[in-house]
Amino acid sequence: METFITIIAGVLFTVGTYLILNKNLLRIILGITIFSHATHLMLLSINGLKKGAAPLLGENAASYTDPVPQALILTSIVISFALTAFLLVLGYRTYVELGTDNMKQLRGNPHE
């Protein structure tokens, strides 16, 4: 199962990289979002997918799941959601103020 999750994360990394290298600002924001989700899947697969064990220490300490990666992933999900919201608002304001979302036009002329 970890191999399958790793392959899916690799595909998401590829799609995210393709979208980040695009000229359209909205596609760049979507690429960053997909890239962060790929990172979450990669962290989850690195930890190992264990079934049937709670992330708590108890009398049966040999069969617990490490809660630290899950807590890190949860924190990362919240941070990536906030970053996505900020980038969407920034992209919207850029489009309203400048009238374009093309990165080539947003750079301006090289002789300015």
Give structural notes.
With 112 residues, the chain is mostly helical. The protein is 71% helix and 0% strand. It has helices at 2-20, 25-47, 67-98, 103-107. Helix 2 packs antiparallel against helix 3 (67-98). It is elongated, with a radius of gyration of 19 Å. The mean pLDDT is 86.
User: How much β-strand is present in the residues?
Assistant: under 5%
Multimeric status of the protein: single chain
Taking the alpha carbons of the first and last residues, their distance comes to: 54 Å
* Helix percent band: over 70%
Task: Tell me the overall shape.
Answer: elongated
* Total helical elements: 4
Give a count of the beta strands, DSSP E runs of length 2 or more. 0
Question: What structural class do helix, strand and pairing data support?
Answer: mainly alpha
Major sheet summary line: none
Rounded average pLDDT: 86
- Helix and strand pattern: HHHH
Question: Rg from C-alpha positions?
Answer: 19 Å
Low-confidence stretches: none
Give me a quick take on this structure.
The protein is mainly α. The chain is built from four helices and no strands.
